[in-house]
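Is this the right way to post structure tokens for a design question? Let me know if I should format differently. Anyway, here goes:
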């Protein structure tokens, strides 16, 4: 059942009877549409059943009035190799995150690699190897964008050009290596921009031995694309400094599960007051000292929707469309042309809320009933979330030879 449509590249799918369609677009977070047509892993039409011929589709999924959202994006993870993390000696953490609705992950540096090289040749080699490894192998189907070097003192422009030419698309959090001064970080951010490499800076106190304090002056001077874990990972800057980052920078503000939860809530409130919720993106910063949290993204959505007075449909945008825009991804929105990455959800059984959005608003977690990546079902009922009150049903299966791989 799990691999019902696995291996059929041009499969057409109708997803119908959607009760609430969360678009991921912060300008228009809830759509009136009730059906989506998918072909060859891409969204083709978003509308109603009448807009296409359901009988002609290879596969039909009836949502039974439940909620459809874009696959969730974790903007901040620390993968190492495949689905293994030496940080907690754990296998299968990415598969667990899939069961928490995550379909895409962005590496903020492969810093837990045992014996991680810090010489420049080694830094570049590890980045290129990690980029290739996760491009060639998707653990449980999850798209892990990795190959994020931890920059070190002594790196020169030619190093960034070389990495860019070799396929490196982003660097790890600045501050985890020996580059900790604002002017050094700024120089490397400028080189990255020149060669099309995205940048993130660590924000706050030391995360693990060897990392350093990065305060608001360094963050502002570096001007990286993403203010990584603005609520600390785990140790936050004082709230006054966080406010200054919200006010004086125009860059993305990343709130992480493995950070200071009080500052997470206050940051979202402040972003709301400043009318810059489009800058908020979510990550877990997992695996970390606290472990890997498969439900970290939906827990953070629920935290912000229940305690920071952010509308739940907006909180979902923090982990979908906002991140896709900041990270330049082809997923994160339910609109034609995007990757068919979806989370099927409903309110949890016996929760207080009458709908999914109400249940998130009161602080409960969604029940995830299916996750799809590029039009392929990667998990049915989540083995980790509370059970969904109502489940979608696959009413038509592909009538073709299924090639397993
Ligand atoms: Zn991190």
């Amino acid at each position: 059942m799990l691999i019902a449509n696995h291996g059929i590249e041009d499969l057409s799918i109708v997803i119908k009877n959607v009760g609430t369609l969360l678009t991921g677009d912060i300008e228009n977070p809830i759509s009136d549409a009730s059906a989506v047509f998918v072909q060859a892993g891409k969204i083709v039409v978003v509308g109603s059943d009448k807009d296409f011929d359901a009988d002609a589709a290879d596969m039909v999924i009836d949502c039974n009035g439940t909620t459809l959202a874009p696959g969730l994006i974790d903007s901040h993870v620390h993968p190492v190799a495949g689905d293994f993390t030496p940080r907690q000696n754990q296998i299968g953490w990415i598969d667990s995150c899939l069961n928490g609705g995550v379909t895409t992950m962005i590496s903020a540096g492969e810093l837990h690699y045992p014996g991680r090289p810090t010489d420049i040749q080694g830094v570049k080699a590890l980045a290129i190897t990690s980029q290739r490894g996760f491009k060639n192998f998707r653990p449980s189907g999850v798209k892990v964008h990795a190959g994020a070097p931890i920059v070190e003192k002594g790196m020169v422009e030619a190093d960034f050009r070389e990495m860019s030419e070799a396929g490196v698309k982003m660097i790890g959090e600045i501050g985890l290596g020996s580059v900790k001064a604002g002017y050094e970080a700024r120089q490397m951010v400028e080189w990255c921009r020149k060669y099309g490499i995205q940048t993130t800076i660590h924000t706050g106190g030391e995360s693990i031995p060897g990392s350093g304090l990065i305060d608001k002056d360094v963050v502002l001077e570096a001007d990286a694309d993403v203010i990584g874990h603005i609520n600390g990972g785990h140790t936050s800057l004082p709230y006054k400094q966080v406010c200054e980052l919200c006010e004086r920078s125009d860059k993305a503000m990343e709130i992480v599960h493995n950070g200071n939860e009080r500052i997470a809530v206050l940051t979202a409130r402040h972003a709301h007051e400043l009318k810059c919720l489009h800058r908020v993106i979510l990550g877990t910063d997992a695996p970390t000292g606290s472990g890997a949290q498969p439900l970290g993204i939906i827990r953070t959505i629920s935290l912000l929707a229940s305690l920071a007075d952010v509308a739940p449909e907006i909180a979902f945008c923090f982990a979908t469309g906002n991140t896709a825009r900041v990270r330049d991804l082809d997923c994160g929105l339910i609109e034609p042309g995007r990757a068919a990455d979806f989370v099927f959800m409903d309110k949890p059984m016996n929760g207080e809320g009458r709908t999914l959005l109400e249940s998130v608003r009161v602080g409960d977690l969604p029940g995830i009933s299916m996750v799809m990546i590029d039009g392929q079902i990667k998990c049915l009922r989540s083995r980790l979330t509370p059970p969904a009150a109502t489940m979608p049903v696959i009413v038509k299966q592909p009538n073709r030879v299924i090639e397993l791989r």
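Format looks fine. Someone answered above. Worth noting: The chain has a mean pLDDT of 94. The chain is about 25% helix and 20% strand.
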